[in-house]
## 1
Amino acid sequence: MVSFLYRIDVGFPGTPNRMHAYDAEAQHIMAGSAPTFYGGGVVMDVTGKIRPPVAGDPPAPGGFVYGMYVRTYPTHGPVGVSDPLGTDTPPTSGIASVMTRGYMTVLLRGATPAVKGAPAYIWKAAAAGGQVPGGVTADGSTPANVMAIRNGYFTGPADAKGITEIAFNI
């Protein structure tokens, strides 16, 4: 009998899963405030462009994330830049894909574990304790630091690398 010692990786942050329940939009990136990683939450600025959430944005439960930053494939990063294997550099300007409904693989931030069915939040305060603005977290204990993900919840615990899946606006 074969014995499997390790679990297969959940996926790559920013990758939409379950394609039957997935909607995305092309949106302009706000110059100077581009998302720095895939799989993070983004808000729509008053200029009509996307950016990571910041401390001044409305907190949960009233403040909502517009969507999740999609890792497009294939991607080559910014023009003229060649990423090493295993690295994805998001563009800092132009057009980006934003998931507005679906399931996505994300990197869990902070020390609070993901629990199946538990609410998922987006961190909007300054970076601290493993949290970064736009990062997915299970820690909703301080509403002033997070924004709600519409109908957002974890579909299971994170793997050894901290990768988990969330449902968004389902």
## 2
Amino acid sequence: MWINRARQFPSVAVLAMVAALIMTGCARPAAAVQPSVPTAEPTRGPGAQPTSSGERISGTVQTVDSGKITLTDGKTLTLAPDTQIIRIQLATSADLQPGGYVAITASRQPDNTLLASAVNIFAESQRGLGAGQRPMTGGNLMTNATIVKVDGDTFTATFPGGDDTVKLAPDVKVMKFVPAGPQDIVSGTMLSALVTNGVVKSLSLQ
């Protein structure tokens, strides 16, 4: 049976992870043997963390004025016309449907299937971001793939160079990313941004 109840998750850590996922998609697709990039180690609280593509900044919005975002810790972010903005929403396993493009965090099982602890459903505009499979810190695999078939608590997914059978863990966390815009950035909103040369390249909201 599908697991139909939403579960809580660490807000800042998830936002940082999603920002890393988006940023990875802006680069070349990863091959199966490449190191984990879509899920860089999450931040442990509001603040800045350097990345190979810029600076990752997480925090809570205090004010927004003419494309300038001021966080409660005093940091200021500048939006660009092409800044990619998405919102994270809790989802359920019922939202996992054939044709959906997803990011799967899972461990390889003795029978060669994957046991998923988290599945993130990309927005349609993000289809193809970071496509492929790569190892993560801690022994898990990150697989960005397209769902082909769903059968109960198991689905098959395909990605460049391969495919896998994925079984959902009993405590699996499912989230979906939906398109958002500057109008959705309001006081009190928690965000994680990837900033290059002082300008926000991608931003996720909760």
